[in-house]
Amino acid sequence: MTGGQRWSRRRLLGSGALAGGAAVLAACGGGTKKAEQQQAVQTGNTAAQGQGGQAKAGGTLNWLAATSDAATGWDPHKSFSFKTHTALSYTHERVMEFSFGADAEPGDYTAVPGLAERIEQVDPTTFKIALRQGVKFHNKAPVNGRVLDSGDIKYTIDRMLAKKFTYRNIFEDVVDKVDTPDKQTAIFKLKMPYADFPVNLANHYAWIIAKESVEAAKDGDISRADQVIGTGAFMMDSFEPGQKATYVKNPDYYRKDKAGMALPYLDKIVTFYSADQATQEAMIRSKQVDGGGVNLPSVAAMKSSNPELVWWQNLSAGGDVFYFRMDKNETQDIRVRQAVAYGFDRKGWLKSQYVDNGTIHNGPPLPASYTGWFVELKDLGEGAQFYEYKPEESKKLLTAAGFPNGFDGTLDLSNAQGYGQATFNRGQLSADLMKQIGINLKLNPKEYGDWLATGHAGIYDSFAFGPLTPLVAMDDWLWGMHHSKATTNKAHSVIPELDALLDKQRGLYDTAERKKVVADIQKLVAKHVMYIFAPAGNTTTAQQPHVKNFRPKSGYNIGNAMRAVWIDRG
Prior knowledge:
With about 575 residues, the protein is an alpha+beta fold. The chain is built from 20 helices and 23 strands. The protein has two domains: about 10-280 and about 540-565, 3-Layer(aba) Sandwich (D-Maltodextrin-Binding Protein, domain 2); about 320-535, Dipeptide-binding Protein, domain 3 (Roll), CATH 3.10.105.
């Protein structure tokens, strides 16, 4: 059924019928469950060995947040940094969400009810949300434990648009209006049929906030840690910049487990900040923390020294991207872009950066984790050839384009303090590869905040390099990064044929029909060489065996994943 066809029946997904409803929303969104079923790997101890037993309440979990800290602030509509939104996942929730826990695949982005009790699709452009009863905001001034209502949903979206939040397009491009006929009901009227709308409600930027917290703040800015108020399982207790953040159990949290036991189980979570890889590894080895991310080259040694650790690996819906302007400079010429592509040694990259643990082909436009939608190289058509490493062909193409001696440019990227030294090194590696074919790029490292406002936002002069947000809706990867009207089109491209396909796939609720269009989009993007998606390494997480019911979730979801975690040290 396409978005333009008559809607013959209503679609309903409620919190009491997740198994049957998830398939419905999979057609409306961009789940990646099959991919992670294939690619999530438990190494060392198995997940079953590390997860079983009867849940126990209480205790403190110490966790490693492999970054400097939430230095960009705590206002969800002022910063789109992973540092901010990963931290907010402990304290905030969304209308829709994803499955969490030991049985939930890390990259399954099938939307299920969160703050919603159920979601009903009335017609191709109308979604009706019924909120859960009795959900309360944290019992902190000025909200003081008030019950969540539909006005909070509308207020959050309105504020996102008014603040001109970078990723406001998840609602601005799609939602015509939000009606709140009563306190438990929000009705979304869309501007057009839009297949990924339920997933947008689950987006990791769609945290629901309370109006009172904003109105009580000076200039409406809720960037301080003591202003963090959500409906989540944990409450902000304290924040020491550059050191740690401490969250405590929300005693009024509304969720219970299947046995009727109140969630969360944990009394406290302390997240320790460190951007230094050696420090990160030492904290896990010495059991200073109960788990956290580990750099791939360190995994083998840590397995040997700490055989008790439980390991998780999965391909995230994200990765590093080397990009360039298609509206100006030498890269307007497709031959120059082809030369750039041929100059990328993908096999060497995967080996040197990820010890051959990951994938060479990670898009564009879709990351490899979208199995079932992702087009493999053998089926990519004309564009498949540009994934090969042919530096001599690069030089021929540059000569044909009028640059026999190559050319100079700049490469914008975040400094090492932004994403860590390893990411900065990969940016440097991309410049080194370009130098070998005659493109001399001067590194232009930027302070993290400056980088977010410029290069990451698509504002740069020549070339740029950096990791992309692990986007949860396929349309963000498709329309958002490639349509000529999209504010997140970092290539600044204008390809009418592609625009037409991107517009078409957005309104296709029929999965089979949408897959055909998405496949055509991937082939066209590869043909035009619009981005260079670098090889992607697996994300690796280690946990101590006393941590139970944990499984990492791709994206900015770690805090949500912790609400059903418990500890058994005995």
